[in-house]
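Here is one chain, start to finish.
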Amino acid sequence: MRLDAGFRRFRDGGGSFIGRYEYNGTTTLNISGDAVMNITGTLRIARDGRGVMNIGSGGMVLARTLDLGQNWDGVSAKGATINLNGGSLLLGSGGMTASGNTNTIALNMNSGTLGTTAAEGWSSAYNMTLTGNVTVDTRQYDADTKSYHDQASTGITLGGVLSGAGGLTKTGSGTLTLSGQNTYTGLTNVQAGTLAFTNTNAMTLGSISMGAGARMTTASALTLNSGAALTFDMTGVAANEPVINITAGTLALADSSCALTINNYGELEASNYVLAQWAAAEA
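Its structure:
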């Protein structure tokens, strides 16, 4: 099935499904070219079947809840695959879930945007693979007015492991919380709001770019990979408030090839400005 243009709204009844058990194969839904699919309830991928959803450039999928498979008979060959290929996946307060027995779940975040239609945001506990740059936007999207509401109280939590060579861009004034033991190696670009790493195991990141007014917190030691760049936009930075706050452990560089760049500092008044703060190392 393919949606290339236009708007489709599906009201919640028994739920909307991609990949039902009645069909012995894989059901694929391709959404691209300015097409919008709005599920007012739950979108279920692979209900005792195999389902693939490809969200291409210009395509948008909205759902209150994304159910990544109802695998009642426990057959491992069944599963759900989401390929975000330049489009947008915006979820409501139900976030991502899975019901029934364990399903094979593949979330391939190649490019595009993860966002929210709920003021409180949403959460997911599933692993994601980043192959390109993926944006997580904490602004609340209103499908009726096609507009965004930017609120600091809106939050998105990704609890699974983010892996791959791709990068992550955070937009919106809300908070993106990453609680998995992440291994992705691309650019971490915090354009606005707060990016919070809450896993207490030491972590390693590639290059980091902090936009004007953006903040990052970590609950563990942070090491920058060899050749990584650490960039700060000092526009509007408040004195004595750390841009990056490492609440446990220290900040370390893999080697001397790491670089620091500070932009837009010419208008700052004379004071103490803290780029990164961490606890003192134990003796």
